[in-house]
Write a structure and sequence with these properties.
Layout: E1 12-18, E2 27-32, E3 35-41, E4 47-51, E5 66-68, E6 71-73, E7 80-81, E8 87-89, E9 107-110, E10 113-118, E11 148-155, H1 159-165, H2 171-175, E12 183-188, E13 193-199, E14 216-222, E15 226-232, E16 237-245, E17 251-259, H3 268-293, H4 309-319, H5 331-337
Antiparallel strand pairs: 1-10, 2-3, 3-4, 5-6, 6-7, 7-8, 9-10, 11-17, 12-13, 13-14, 14-15, 15-16, 16-17
Helix pairs in contact: 4-5
């Protein structure tokens, strides 16, 4: 495996947990972007994600810290911290310490997931995390069977590997054994939230023509950290992939799939069982990609086929905006120098 050469501290929304992992009163420990963090849920249900160490004498609040109503109490000396990271109580002193603050992160709960905003420059969020339902149409989770999940921790890969997969039309035939190479009908990288649509089928034989295919995928990329997809013309499914850097070498990978509920009138138990099977197949296909990503070397510039220039140069140019130094892959610059255009 090769250490990813890109910055592991990109700007954007990234998943750090699933919502149901953090109940009321829970304190959840984690490490992302090289930092020890905790998530805790107050009695009101409000979720806070903050750096893990107490500003008093450095106790780790994830090991013995307790939720007391709407604040978190340090296990070492009982100092209490609110959801803004402010000290609100020192039990053996009349006044809190107003000069010290624990770093907190903007957080949203969406897609049954906990997302935090990471930005090395400390800016507020300037785009929204995509919703696997609302970002496409007005359908909701009630129209789907319960979410099926995959979690792989500490893999040597970068979030950009996964996003680039979305413009890589050729891999579908060789990794996923699709009968045809898909045709992309939309590449829109004008904003931090980008869009990729393509026509594809997973059934049939090699004699099929793309003109005869009436199914496809719509994808929305919320920066480098979150991608949601909607399938049409196939079994109704929605997916969410979320890749979050842990340290300078590794990322955690989460993948979720929803399968649409069958119309009323059939055998409910059988329909749910079939949905479970299909969901597991979608996850299996994602695992095929993970196997390659986790052993991949980031090629910069890559040796691209002519038909690949447009997609790869567009997404690598788009990705640069999320890095602290404004440098992602340099493929777009290299190909521009050689006279290629997207």
């Amino acid at each position: 495996m090769a250490k990813p050469p890109l910055s592991m501290n990109p700007t954007g929304w990234f998943q750090v947990a699933w919502s149901d992992e953090i109940g009321v009163g829970d304190v959840h420990t984690m490490k992302y972007f090289g930092r020890e963090m905790i998530a805790w849920r107050a009695e009101s249900g409000q979720l806070t994600v903050m750096n893990a160490y107490c500003e008093h004498l450095g106790a780790h609040l994830g090991y013995g810290g307790t939720v007391c109503g709407e604040v978190l109490q340090c296990p070492f000396h009982g100092w209490q911290w609110n959801s803004q990271g402010r000290n609100v109580c020192i039990p053996y002193q009349d006044k809190p310490n107003r000069g010290r603050r624990i770093t907190t992160y903007p957080v949203v709960e969406r897609n049954e997931s906990v997302y935090i905003w990471n930005d090395a420059q400390g800016r507020e969020p300037y785009f929204d995390a995509p919703d696997v339902f609302a970002s496409f149409d007005d359908r909701s989770a009630a129209d789907y069977y319960p979410q099926q999940r995959l979690f792989r921790a500490g893999l040597e890969l970068h979030p950009q590997y996964v996003l680039e997969n979305g413009v890589d039309f050729a891999h579908f035939k060789y990794v996923h054994r699709t009968p045809i190479v898909p045709v992309f009908t939309r590449h829109d990288f004008a904003e931090p939230v980008s869009y990729v649509d393509f026509t594809i089928t997973f059934e049939g034989d090699d004699g099929q023509k793309i003109e005869d295919v009436n199914s496809g995928v719509e994808a929305i990329n919320g920066g480098l950290g979150i991608a949601v997809t909607k399938s049409w013309g196939m079994i109704d499914n929605r997916t969410i992939s979320a890749i979050t850097p842990v340290d300078e070498s590794t990322s955690d990978v989460r993948f979720m799939v929803y399968i649409g509920r069958s119309p009323a009138g059939g055998d409910p138990a059988r329909a749910e069982a079939r949905a479970g099977e299909f969901g597991r197949e979608v996850i299996r296909q994602f695992e095929q990609d993970i196997h390659i990503w986790s052993h991949q070397r980031y090629s910069d510039p890559p040796a691209l086929a002519t038909a690949e220039y447009e997609g790869f140069t567009a997404i690598r140019q788009w990705a640069k905006q999320f890095y602290p130094d404004g440098i992602g892959g340099s493929a777009a610059e290299v190909y521009a120098q050689k006279g290629f255009t997207a």
